[in-house]
Design goal:
The chain has about 160 residues and is mostly beta strands. The chain contains three helices and 14 strands. The radius of gyration is 16 Å and the shape is globular. Residues about 1-10 have low confidence and may be disordered. Keywords: Kinase, Phosphotransferase system, Sugar transport, Transferase, Transport.
Amino acid sequence: MFGKLKNLFSQPGITIASPVSGTVVPLAEVPDPTFAQGILGPGAAVQPSEGRIVAPANGTVDMMFDTGHAVSMTTSEGAELLIHVGIDTVSLKGQHYTAKCKSGDTVRKGDTLIEFDIDAIRKAGYEVVTPVIVCNPDAFASVKTEDAGSVQAGDDLLTLEKK
């Protein structure tokens, strides 16, 4: 009985995992004003330590960009996410990126979405910091970011509180 009563009053959040291993960076520190100012939505960023993006939750791929540098998805709980690998990396026209999924694919948390060559991207003069943006924040009461520090792909990155 107590468990049922507790569930009535607690609104568990929706957890969004880190799509990549690395170091969590506050969105405000991303060297691109569109991300840093939250114009596309709230979220966090990760400075990757490996070149593999995985699904941060179960859901559907809405759009895999032709260049492979970004992917948008809707989680099974309704969060619309954008994962953007690097800053201004669309200019690479797909060089150093390999898409591992396509628009319309159903994915499970941990499925590989994109592989990329960190060293080659940096050598070409681009940042690889990877913003993870919640594009429909109005659907949630709040978007909370885990503390900065080291993170593994699959670790909690964001918590979305249901309205």
